[in-house]
Amino acid sequence: MPGTRRRRFRHAGAGTAAVLALCLTVACGGGGDSGNGDAVTELPDLTGKTVQVAAVWTGSEQKNFKKALQEFEERTGAEVEFVPTGDNVSSFLSSRIEDGSPPDVAMLPQVGVLQQFAEKGWLKPVDDATYRQMLMNLETGWHDLGAHEGTTYGVYFKAANKSLVWYNTAAFEKAGASEPKTWKDFLDTAQRLADSGVDPVSVGGADGWTLTDWFENIYLSQAGPDMYDRLAAHEIPWTDPSVEKALTTLGDLFGEEQLLAGGNDGARATAFPESVTKAFSDLEDPEAAMVYEGDFVGVNITSDTDAELGTDAKLFPFPAVGGGQPPVVTGGDAAVALKHSPGAHAMMTFLASEDAARIMAEQGGFLSPNKSLDTAAYPSDLQREIATALLDAGSTFRFDMSDQAPAAFGGTKGEGEWKALQDFLDNPDDVAGAMLALEDSAAKAFDD
């Protein structure tokens, strides 16, 4: 994980903070009302200014984010324009930057892209006011992820807990199954479910990113955080014995066709949204009993099925593997400033604050890395449980490995890690072939 050994960061000078006059209301005695009586972050008067914020978000996610942006407008007098990036955030922003028309702030969903943009000099360091908010509200690990060569550029606004297994409670009750704590227990539970007449595990193998998440959770728990960091940085090859061990462990599931919904062919043909509905569309006679993926599965359940979260659909942490600790793999979106302007810096400070996190959390379907946010802000017990698990990890979590890699290896459909692991799903006995394919692709991507 980039920067995990760094604990000191450079940021913009104190003069910027003075110009923006940004401070905490509780410290500066300013006014303002967040609507719930809590102290709010004071922001400068930006009347007549336009602030553009670019993000990939669509649908309800975009709608909810616009409510937070509306709060920024009301506090500053600025007009905020949401700029949709489309799925290829990197290409969209690169084009805008090279054309001389970048948005003020952008949300980057991949650490690798943040590193690449910082290397090119496209990002502006956070100023003092934003950095103070980060010190109060974000664990050091999130600072590390937003830094490049000791300078802090990114504010992690949205997080994902990608170490969750969701299950159909009726299927578990019918099989007499309980929530497993270890990988061995998980496989035994899957077999019990298969014996009861339901396919145990739904895998969205048509989307290669889901397979990277399976691997990462197993590897983090089995090999440990230090080895995870080394593999993420390609300091060790994908032919390392630790990779062989993790793939062999994953093959204990992928190599047992009766444990996969639709077998290997069915898993390979199933897209992520369908992998969720297989477990929860028909509650009494589901196509699968469990589906692994992050907290965002809850949004798919509520929007695409009639299952009730916390009743029909429950979850348990990804099980510990090989005597290791239960893994906590995260994803997330970092806000970065692409312009050195009062509006850009004010937006960055707002997004680093508890205030913006609360607005998003209260609407549901959102997980914040902000440790100052009271989990009571989340609208359900299940969401509070997910948030608590992430916050309890402190700085021991690890960020999605594929999102840290160059996009050619970790984030391109039909190529790199996605393709190699899809091939492994097709043929889980070929551990050696998967390792060679992964290393060949990684070597090329990291050398570019």
UniProtKB/TrEMBL annotation:
Keywords: Signal, Transport. Residues 1-29 form the signal peptide. PROSITE patterns: PROKAR_LIPOPROTEIN. The keyword Signal applies. InterPro entries: Bact_solute-bd_prot1, SBP. Belongs to the bacterial solute-binding protein 1 family. This is ABC transporter substrate-binding protein.
